[in-house]
């Protein structure tokens, strides 16, 4: 298949300049402050984005925010490379090997699709530390590999409760990007939270935009737009998406219809692509990918890296719900009580639909 890499150059000030580079050349890197005599050893950090890359205003941008914080707070040099849709694992391996071969000592694969490639490449570079964000099935292996896992179902439970409490039609919807076990966690938590908050709520059958190995459901806004129209026509007045860049289409369509949309991964109320309808973004299920990226690089830098799985959930604010806009202020007390009950173990949130 054609090999086109989307490379992102990030300036010292933290601003981003994205440029598309054909073929295999044109890889760019950037440096943080040199340390200027602070005695700290600089490390080189490589990050391979998931489909959509920096600028998707969702999952990848959360990872980018973590790297921006790394550049601001630590003494690092960075390089970023994006994936192509439907590429084979061999391409991901090549990308990771490229970074490792250039001396990057902390390398991050963003998205579960990197799991096999990270584990394989890490064996050949034992002195390099690797992180895979959203490790597939929350499993990694290797003494130099960390997997960041998130309890998406917990955060989704809270926005599901918000959806049910704010719905006026009594009908809500869920749109997933690609039908994978990971995205099913979002659906399962959302439905459970909605039904707990309002037992009589009608949750429309979940709509998944694509099936593996087609991953357009994470990047094509037109697919999100059409799915949202269908759920609006079925009476939903609150729709939650877990569809990455394709979710921009969901938000614009739902907001344009004057109904409530619920964002994902980032606080999407603040995203430029949906600014025209931000007053119809009820909340977002925030997934702190940025925190996992920063934690990993900091641990490599200070020598405290530990291999294995690191979990991010409601108990450590690894997932949460956004309050920007004030649209859930009237139900916040109830949502926070659900959060407390989940953290205490009183509420067990399912990770599979129908469980």
TrEMBL record:
Pfam name, any one: Bmp
InterPro entries: BMP_lipoprotein (IPR050957), Peripla_BP_I (IPR028082), PnrA-like (IPR003760)
Localization per record: Cell membrane
SUPFAM superfamilies recorded: Periplasmic binding protein-like I
Keywords: Cell membrane, Lipoprotein, Membrane, Signal
Domain ABC transporter substrate-binding protein PnrA-like: 48-351
Signal peptide per UniProt: 1-18
A single cellular component GO annotation: plasma membrane
Transmembrane segment boundaries: none
Domain of life: Bacteria
Principal location listed in the UniProt entry: membrane
Gene3D superfamilies: 3.40.50.2300
Its membrane topology: Lipid-anchor
Family recorded in the similarity comment: Belongs to the BMP lipoprotein family.
Record's protein name: BMP family ABC transporter substrate-binding protein
Annotated source species: Actinomadura logoneensis
């Amino acid at each position: 298949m054609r090999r086109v890499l989307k490379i992102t150059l990030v300036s010292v000030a933290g601003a981003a300049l994205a440029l598309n580079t054909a073929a295999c050349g044109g890889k760019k890197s950037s440096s943080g402050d040199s340390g200027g005599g602070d005695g700290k050893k600089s490390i080189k950090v490589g990050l391979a984005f998931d489909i959509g890359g920096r600028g998707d205003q969702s999952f990848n941008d959360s990872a980018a925010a973590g790297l921006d914080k790394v550049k601001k707070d630590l003494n690092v040099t960075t390089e970023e490379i994006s994936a192509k849709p439907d590429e084979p694992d061999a391409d991901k391996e090549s990308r990771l090997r490229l970074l490792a071969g250039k001396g990057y000592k902390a390398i991050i694969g963003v998205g579960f699709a990197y799991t096999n490639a990270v584990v394989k490449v890490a064996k050949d570079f034992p002195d390099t530390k690797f992180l895979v964000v959203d490790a597939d099935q929350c499993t990694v292996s290797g003494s130099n590999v960390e997997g960041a896992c998130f309890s998406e179902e917990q955060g989704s439970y809270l926005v599901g409760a918000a959806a049910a409490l704010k719905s006026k039609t009594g009908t809500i919807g869920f749109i997933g990007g690609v039908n994978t076990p990971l995205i099913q966690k979002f659906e399962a938590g959302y439905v459970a939270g909605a039904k707990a908050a309002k037992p009589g709520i009608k949750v429309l059958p979940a709509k998944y935009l694509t099936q593996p190995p087609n991953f357009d459901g994470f990047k094509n806004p037109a697919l999100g737009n059409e799915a949202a129209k269908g759920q609006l026509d079925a009476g939903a007045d609150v729709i939650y998406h877990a569809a990455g860049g394709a979710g921009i289409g969901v938000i614009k369509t739902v907001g344009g219809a004057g109904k409530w949309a619920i964002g994902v991964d980032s606080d999407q109320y603040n995203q430029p692509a949906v600014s025209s309808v931000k007053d119809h973004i009820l909340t977002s299920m925030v997934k702190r990918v940025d925190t996992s990226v920063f934690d990993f690089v900091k641990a490599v830098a200070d020598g405290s890296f530990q291999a294995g799985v690191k979990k991010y959930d409601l108990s450590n604010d690894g997932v949460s719900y956004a309050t920007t806009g004030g649209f859930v202020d009237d139900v916040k007390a109830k949502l926070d009580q659900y959060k407390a009950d989940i953290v205490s173990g009183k509420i067990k949130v399912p990770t599979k639909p129908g469980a």
